[in-house]
Amino acid sequence: IITVDNTTIDNTCTIGSGESLNVTATGVITVPLANTPNNGVQLATGVSAVSITNAGTINPVAVALNIEGTLTGGITNTGTIASTGPWGGITEEGIRLSGATVNGAISNGPAGMISAVNGTAIHIVNSSVVGGITNAAGGNINTAGGFAALDISNAQIGTIDNAGHIGKTPGQNGRGMALSSVTLTGDILNSGSIDTQGGNAALSVSTSTVSGKISNSGTIGGPSSNGLSVVNSSTVGMIENTATGIISGGTQMIGVGNSTVTSGIVNAGKLYGIHPIVLTTSTISGGGILNDTGAETHGQRSISLSVAQISGDIVNRGLMDGAEGGITAFNGSTITGNVITPAPSPPPCRAAPVDWMAPAYSSAATPMSLARSLTVRS
């Protein structure tokens, strides 16, 4: 075990085969500008080590942890892991996995900070993290410079579970999570906050597969930006916004484009935006769409469907506030189930039907006529 305790190392700490790194609360690994572009911690290609634990400070100008080999365990942080640029002309990231394998998890604890001043906080490319990624309540994974705090591409990951904050450094441009060409074998769970500033979606899934669900019980979004985007031939299980969940921001709060949702979309919380739920050239292959009791959607169109195929019912038990219609569908959209919304209050002494049920719909050639026929106000 390499232990950094009550001392400061001012150059790269290289982890060898079979070794672990333990940085205590009084330990510091830093690489000053004079020694840049050296990284803070290096695990080279072909080297198999055990684990990295940090309770202190790892804060070079360049990459704090550069992992290119294998960890049979994981990475645990309760201290600070940071790239302290901007220096320019070099890679500046908190944790970088490139061609790496981590059999355990990347875990950021309640007081943990993983950040980059001018780069990605955690960048995973051509790698696998079997145990997934967790960010505990009170943990921060922060970015600036327009980057994603958690940027994953061409990778295999377990569950991503955030109870803290993932996104922009306060006052800076940055976004939360960006997944591209990723196979995620578990869920994406958020009970904390995932935010964005600068126009990109807070949580983006592109050309990827999420075997489980994307579930939000915290907050997702940012000004003038989409909340959750699933695009470019992605496949996810269920998309869920629970009773405590809030997704807010710009045009689309839950946006699905050229992709498939296999087990439906459920909103039991609050969606605030121009179009709270949008499906474009996409399919819900089972489960339909449910706006549950107590749920609220606020925007121009609560549910907007274009060239969308919905298998299952669209059910509204809550509030769907849409200036252009509660539900609009056009350009060849098909709903194979029913559209179900609460019935108006009946006159006195008459039993009220439980729901109003419309027949299945298939879009006509004229978008306006179909938009009218599917407009549901509650």
Walk me through what this model shows.
By secondary structure, the chain is mostly beta strands. The strands form two sheets. The protein has a 35-stranded mixed sheet that branches. The relative contact order is 0.06.
Structural class: mainly beta
Total of DSSP H or I helical runs spanning 4+ residues: 1
DSSP, total strands: 50
Average pLDDT taken over every residue: 89
* Beta-strand share of residues: over 45%
Helix content: under 10%
Distance between the termini: 63 Å
Q: Rough shape?
A: elongated
Radius of gyration: 23 Å
Biggest sheet details? 35 strands, mixed
Task: Give start-end ranges of low-pLDDT stretches.
Answer: 349-378
Give descriptors for this structure.
single chain; 378 residues; mainly beta; 35-stranded mixed beta sheet; 15-stranded mixed beta sheet; 50 strands; 2% helix; elongated; disordered C terminus
Secondary structure layout:
Blueprint: E1 2-4, E2 8-9, E3 13-14, E4 21-23, E5 28-29, E6 41-43, E7 48-49, E8 52-54, E9 57-58, E10 65-67, E11 70-71, E12 75-77, E13 80-83, E14 95-98, E15 101-102, E16 106-108, E17 113-116, E18 122-125, E19 128-129, E20 133-135, E21 140-143, E22 148-157, E23 160-162, E24 165-168, E25 175-184, E26 188-190, E27 193-195, E28 203-206, E29 209-210, E30 214-216, E31 219-221, E32 228-231, E33 235-236, E34 239-241, E35 246-248, E36 252-257, E37 260-261, E38 265-267, E39 270-272, E40 275-280, E41 283-284, E42 289-291, E43 296-306, E44 309-310, E45 314-316, E46 319-330, E47 334-335, E48 339-341, E49 356-358, E50 361-362, H1 367-373
Parallel strand pairs: 1-4, 2-5, 3-6, 4-8, 5-9, 6-10, 7-11, 8-12, 9-13, 10-14, 11-15, 12-16, 13-17, 14-18, 15-19, 16-20, 17-21, 18-22, 19-22, 20-23, 21-24, 22-25, 23-26, 24-27, 25-28, 25-29, 26-30, 27-31, 28-32, 29-33, 30-34, 31-35, 32-36, 33-37, 34-38, 35-39, 36-40, 37-41, 38-42, 39-43, ...
Antiparallel strand pairs: 47-50, 48-49
